[in-house]
Amino acid sequence: TAILKGPEDKVNLTCSHTDSNYNMILWYQQSAQNTALKLIGYVRFTSPMVEDSFKGRFDVSGDAAANKMAYLHFPKVPEAEDSAVYFCAASEAQCFTIPSLLYKNPL
């Protein structure tokens, strides 16, 4: 779906799915200048997270556990660099561990 918005228009994108095994919804950006998919953020169960490089430009919200929906909001007026293709993907919620916290470094 193509969305054309003017400079003052607010933009909100919605993503939903029906797979009961997937409790995480991720949002990606693909710009014309750089075709690599960049992770904007995700909703894991009901907890949203936005990558540092996108904070302030995007908000993520939703409930990926119960109603399987997530939203991508552009809180500020979109800029030219925000003109891109946006993807969402559903995933099984992963258990995150930071390896450096598992082992105490010897002094």
Output mean pLDDT: 84
* Spans where pLDDT lies below 50 across 5 or more residues: none
Sheet of most strands: 4 strands, antiparallel
Summarize the helix and strand pattern as letters. Answer: EEEEEEEH
Per DSSP, what share of the residues sits in E-state strands of 2 or more residues? 35-45%
The termini sit apart by 56 Å
- Identify the quaternary structure here: single chain
Biggest sheet: strands side by side, in what order? 4-3-2-7
What structural class should be given to the helix and strand makeup? mainly beta
- Radius of gyration over alpha carbons? 16 Å
Number of strands: 7
Tell me, briefly, the overall form: globular
Number of helices: 1
Give helix % range.
under 10%
Describe what you observe in this structure.
With 107 residues, this protein is mainly beta. The chain has one helix at 99-102; strands spanning 11-16, 24-31, 38-44, 47-50, 59-63, 69-74, 84-91. The chain has a four-stranded antiparallel β-sheet with strand order 4-3-2-7, with no helix packed on it. It is globular, with a radius of gyration of 16 Å. The termini are far apart. This is Ig-like domain-containing protein.
Keywords summarizing the entry:
107 residues; mainly beta; four-stranded antiparallel β-sheet; three-stranded antiparallel β-sheet; globular; immunity
SSE layout and pairings?
Layout: E1 11-16, E2 24-31, E3 38-44, E4 47-50, E5 59-63, E6 69-74, E7 84-91, H1 99-102
Brief digest:
This is Ig-like domain-containing protein. The protein is mainly beta and about 110 residues long.
